[in-house]
Amino acid sequence: MLNIFTLANGRLFQEEIESLEELSKFQPIWVDLESPTLEEKRWVKQYYGLSIPEDAMDEDIEESARFYAEDNGEIHIRSDFLVADDDEPRAVRAAFILNLVNNDLRSKGILFSIHDEDIPVFRLLRMRARRAPGLIEDAQEVLLKLFDADAEYSADTLEGIYDELEKVSKKVLSGNVTDAIAGEALGAIARHEDMSGRIRRNVMDTRRALSFLMRSKMLNAEQFDEARQILRDIDSLDSHTAFLFDKINFLMDATVGFININQNKIIKIFSVASVALLPPTLVASVYGMNLKFPELEFLGPWSYPYTVSLMVASALVPMWYFYKRGWLT
User: How many structural domains is the chain composed of?
Assistant: First the structure.
């Protein structure tokens, strides 16, 4: 899908391009390629003179491969954006190309973005730019607002994680934690830990991209100050993620502790039962020997009830003692 965005009355308007001829009708500041076909890439190369690198979506992590400037003046940035989907949270790679130097190409002053799927941050920026006049003035502003929206999206996701952890905390700290509740709590905690890690990685990547923009000297004074403000917002998220990780670790330890307590209760029951059955076993072993016992000969037909009663009593006395000591609760 090939979309272009133009400025009109201070607002950003979107047009979906379905042919090469349509590109000549507009003067965009942003050209967005979402899962582009080979034909759409050919249109961009033919009209704007821009060649999209084959490795634009590679998973390189070194900074030299993600943020660099070409000899022709093109600025290349590859950044990951968070998709906080409950079923499948993930990071989506987006590649940006910006030309502010080469006057020979129609691509000057246009931001090109390439990604494999729609990204929530991109949708958020499109909605805001349509409703708020004067929000965006040029291609650099589009890129800055994307990173600003990315930081805000990460902050909103962190708030959602905190709210969910509060629900888990009430269940875990209620004191009546069954194995089923503990299993659900552990699953929720693991999901939130994974999402928190993705957020931390996402804001770290955004910080690197903004630092590169500031070093590249492609921003004016106002945009430079805006980039610094976004960096301050991102720095404030670090303390929030650290707090969430501490809370997650605490809830994880508490849940595992309750599981251990439940297991210890079961083990205690088996231990008490085994100890209580030792005296009856001893009685049965003694009277089971092939010997003549005077008391049994004296009791005659009452020897069997006597033996059974002695075994029952020898089991009840330890149980009564354990109960008095509180070992059965």
Answer: 2
Residue 284 domain-assigned? yes
Query: For the residues of 147-180, what is the DSSP string, one character each?
Result: HHHHHHHHHHHHHHHHHHHHHHHHHHTTS---HH
269 lies in some domain: no
What is the domain range of residue 37? 2-261
At 190-212, the pLDDT tens digits run 888 988 888 998 889 899 888 88
CA atoms within 13 A on the CB side of 223: 22
Q: Quote the pTM value.
A: 0.77
Question: What phi and psi, each to the nearest 5 degrees, are found at residue 285?
Answer: -70, -40
Token pair 């967005």 is found at 32
Which residue in 269, 247, 265 sits closest to 179, CA to CA?
Answer: 265
Domain for residue 266, yes or no? Answer: no
Same domain, 64 and 106: yes
SS3 34: strand
Same domain, 139 and 285: no
Which residues make beta-bridge pairs with 94? 79, 115
pLDDT digit string, tens, across residues 138-164 = 888 888 899 999 999 999 999 998 998
94 domain residue, yes or no: yes
